[in-house]
Amino acid sequence: MTFATNLVTLGRRVVGVLANNLVALDGNAKLPAVDGSQLTGLIKGQTAVALSGTVVDFTGIPSVAKRITIALASLSTTGASHVLLQLGKSAGIENTGYAAYTSISTTGSGGSSMSSTAGFFAGWTGGAAVVSSSVITLINVGGNRWVASLAGGLDNSAGIYYGFVAGGDKTLGGVLDRLRLTPANGTDTFDSGTATVLWE
Questions:
Q1: Within this chain, do residues 12 and 76 fall inside the same structural domain, yes or no?
Q2: Are residues 121 and 166 in contact, defined by beta-carbon separation less than 8 angstroms?
Q3: Which of 4, 31, 94, 181 minimizes the number of CB atoms within 10 Å of its CB?
Q4: What distance in Å separates the CA atoms of residue 176 and residue 10, rounded to the nearest whole number?
């Protein structure tokens, strides 16, 4: 098409929010309500959710999400079990097939490490007196394969642990649309903390 033909075609378009319409700002210089599900590079998410019980689920993650960030603030549980992040699809949460590893730095003893096939490490808890915060990043590296990284540390001085890092890999059996936070032993409960989930 020539430039002139393009101008004629453009001039015939109607301003609106239907298929093949031109989208225009309203009188307050704001975009009208449109379906933005195909937009990429925009950060969206959920407000901070208080952690309680043995399981906290986050649903409604769109299929176009390629990067997910989970911020855990002031995390604490009633016991000493590590907190895991598990991925899920429409059929439910998957609790096997993870290749996850964490390293915990400690004062005096040099630290410790451990692995998990049940989920990505999401936070360290050493009992009700230990409060920690961390940021977990999930990146889709193709298909339904997700790679995770975590960095965090203690919010208070209780316990000997002061910093931790983690990473992992998981190929999900479908398109990711949900996440779950849960203590690894399945019996400890969250007694403080919030989680904020963002995606882009």
A1: no
A2: yes
A3: 4
A4: 38
Q: Which two tokens stand for residue 133?
A: 């915060």
Where are the alpha helices (H) located in the chain, listed in sequence order? 3-11
CA within 13 Å, CB half, 43: 7
As a whole number of angstroms, the distance between CA 196 and CA 184 comes to 20
CA distance 69 to 180: 13
The count of structural domains within the chain is 2
Question: Structure tokens of 147?
Answer: 């790679």
Structure tokens, 56: 């906290």
Q: What would the pLDDT profile of 50-87 be if each residue is shown by its tens digit? A: 999 999 999 999 999 999 999 999 999 998 888 999 99
Of 104, 112, 121, residue with least CA distance to 164: 104
Q: Which residues pair with 60 in a beta bridge?
A: none
- Confirm whether 39 is domain-assigned: no
Q: 149 or 109: which carries more pLDDT confidence? A: 149
Phi-psi region at 199: left, alpha or beta (left = phi > 0; alpha = psi -120 to 50): beta
